[in-house]
Design a protein that fits this description.
This protein is mainly α and about 100 residues long. Helix content is about 40%, strand content about 5%. The longest helix has 19 residues.
Length: about 100
């Protein structure tokens, strides 16, 4: 089943399921424990992205703080090598 982070597409139109709440998520498979109800009556149909999403965004921010605190730094020579590989890759694409 296709999934989208554009939660407003799950509004039950055109056969889409209707979302009942929002939850923070990360591409690393993390899902927030908090669930935040969607009051569809207060969602502006023209600008649904203006709906208050501070709850799940805050959960995601806390998750990312934890991820950053556990991340290991790359040695400088390895970081420079990866930068060089990236530059070469994009330079080749321009040719």
């Amino acid at each position: 089943m296709h999934q989208s982070s554009g939660w407003w597409v799950y509004d039950a139109t055109l056969g889409a399921p209707r979302a009942t709440d929002l939850r923070g998520a990360c591409s690393g498979r993390w899902r927030g424990a908090g669930r935040y109800p969607i009051d569809w009556a207060s969602v502006d149909r023209r600008y649904p992205y203006r709906f208050d999403t501070t709850g799940p965004e805050g959960d995601w921010g806390q998750h990312m703080t934890k991820v950053r605190s556990r991340a290991a730094s790359l040695p400088d020579d390895l970081a420079a090598l990866l930068d060089h590989v990236g530059e070469r890759r994009f330079a080749g694409a321009a040719d």
